[in-house]
Amino acid sequence: MASDTTPENTISQKVHQALGFEETERVIFYRKRC
Known about the structure:
- Helices cover 26% and strands 0% of the residues.
- By secondary structure, it is mainly alpha-helical.
């Protein structure tokens, strides 16, 4: 099972960790306005 949250949402991160989830990676998104 997988789930996600934003880096600044520390409460959600703590809940995920308490439920047994482990962080696997972090992603950086880019956008270019045309």
